[in-house]
Amino acid sequence: MTQTTQTTQATQAGLCLEDLAVGYRRRALRPSSLRGRPGRSVRSGRAVLAGLSAAAPRGQLTVLLGPNGIGKSTLLRTLAGLQPPLAGRVRLDGADLGQLSGAERARLVGVVLTDRVQIGLLTAAELVGLGRHPHTGPTGRLTDADHAIVRWALDAVHARHLAGRPVDELSDGERQRVMMARALAQEPSMILLDEPTAFLDAPSRVTVTALLRRLARERNLAVIVSTHDLELSLRVADQVWLVDRTGALHTGHPDEVVGSGAVNTSFDGDDLRFDPATRTFELRGPL
Ligand SMILES: Nc1ncnc2c1ncn2[C@@H]1O[C@H](COP(=O)(O)OP(=O)(O)OP(=O)(O)O)[C@@H](O)[C@H]1O
């Protein structure tokens, strides 16, 4: 297993998970992934994932992988502050995210979810401008400096030409880039993205993933992205967080995680097998 050591986490620039448990308080869940696992500090029946310790440094692209329904979105929503942790702590640059006000968190954390929210008749530039709200005064009016940041954010995702277009009329790929620009316009320390490439064609998936890595480096952001695009992400990620079928979190450089066999134990099935040598999936036999 390639669990991240916790010794440097308290002072590391970026995101740190400290013995974190995530899940739902109202509905009783008893995932098989937690059955029989020791040391859980949460009441049974609630946690989707527990005992998570990991780091996602600034300047790096961290990719969150795992089978369907294992808890990736739940974890991202918790990291974004959209639902409270059941136990443990999330730190950003050493600060406990749980102790921050919503406004403070909005200045630090940019979130791009897959949910199609109703945007109304907003243009792309107006939507990206909403990303400035954590920084504007009570009127919410954008200054010239805010507009300049909106233009910069659209440029950064190669979407300046979309500025005047109604968001509702954009393609999925165009819209995804605009949503990323909105998160960038927040000038956050960290951006969380839930399956940003889910509806994109192969070239767009590569473009968006490469863009995320570039933004992490150029803006010194901690970028954490969940995806099912395993082969691509193992090529471009600086770091992998892989939740296996038992709910255990494996972290490290893609080489380490692949070498540990965790990708195989997480994804191999009757019909399909991950080949660590080629880092691709292959059929076990004729279908
Ligand atoms: N609002 C909710 N209330 C209760 N349980 C939920 C809620 N949302 C999700 N779950 C459950 O939490 C578990 C994890 O779901 P989650 O969406 O986090 O998984 P995921 O890894 O993102 O899945 P996928 O890869 O299919 O998108 C599932 O068992 C799911 O049914």
UniProtKB/TrEMBL annotation:
Among CDD domains, the record links this protein to: ABC_Iron-Siderophores_B12_Hemin
A Gene Ontology MF term for this entry?
Answer: ATP binding
The ABC transporter domain is annotated at 29-270
- InterPro entries linked to this entry: AAA+_ATPase, ABC_transporter-like_ATP-bd, P-loop_NTPase
Keywords on record: ATP-binding, Nucleotide-binding, Translocase, Transport
Protein name (Swiss-Prot/TrEMBL): ABC transporter ATP-binding protein
Q: Gene3D superfamilies from the xrefs?
A: P-loop containing nucleotide triphosphate hydrolases (3.40.50.300)
Keyword Ligase among record annotations: no
A Pfam family reported for this protein in Swiss-Prot or TrEMBL: ABC_tran
Is this entry keyworded Transmembrane?
Answer: no
Query: What SMART domains is this protein classified in?
Result: AAA (SM00382)
